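Ticket opened by: R.M.
Priority: normal
Category: complex prediction / small molecule

The reporter submitted a protein together with zinc ion and asked that the result be attached to this ticket for the collaborator who will pick it up next week. Submitted input follows.
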Amino acid sequence: MRVSVLPFLAALTVLPALPSFAQRPANELGRVMILEYHKIDHPEGRWTRTPANFRADLRRLWEKGYRLVALTDLLDGKIDVPTGMTPVVLTFDDSSPGQFRYVEKNGAVEVDPDSAVGILEAFAREHPEFGLKATFYVLPAADPPNRLFNQPAHEERKLRYLVSRGFEIGNHTLWHANLSHYGEETVRKQLAQAQERIQRHVPGYRPRTLALPMGAYPRDIGWAVRGSINGTSYQHDAILMVSGGAAPSPFSKSFDPLRLHRIQALERELSSWLGYFDKHPEARFVSDGDPLTVAVPRRKKDEVKTPLPQGLRIVEHD
Ligand SMILES: [Zn+2]
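Result attached by the on-call engineer:
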């Protein structure tokens, strides 16, 4: 009996291959989703994704061939995902407690497995190729519960932990100020002082990106891009909006890092974009697996933004 079963089992291990992402034509001019999460908590709502739904989002992204990249790597054109895969960026706004919580277990403090950080880490352990990347747009001086994840005793430990794990911290102003309401000095103080507060916990850390509270630009965008006030200098290489859909490829002429679109990661919007890219795979960024080349369909080569970042070259294909 045993003998006759073995060949059958062997045959089972050669399962029909899943649709092969590696066979899809590379298109590094395709669009990239920058997903925007707020609360990871209960119940599901306008600003809330439950832990279970957030896990399901990660699984859907994984199964559909998306892989995490850091926002700053996207900006720098360093997109290192396997052949046939699509980069995706995760962002979390407002440093609410469910994004990063510590819990005590057996006398030790550990990352809550139901907080966003815990969920991301567990998923990356099971699927190392998915990656472990996200940017947290924190509020260092907001009222509770949005002040640096709402566990005052652990603020420093959390910010340092994020950086040590390769996550990024972004500027979201001191306390969610609507920058369209203020003059130059207040806008600059909001940005510089938010950075100072972050650096108090993580010396020398420079937030490279800014997510605008409520998507509101100051009267002069230059105030938000770079500046210096009371001895603190800041510079933002990208400014993120709160909506707008999938972003253009960073290699495309239409990529504008100072007006970077995002997708709010709620069931309807996320499903709609995932469905769109299922139906229109040609619209999606598909990697050629080589981070040093930018693979583009020949008919689209005029859409490439030049010069490309240092060390990159275009590879055209039919
Ligand atoms: Zn916000």
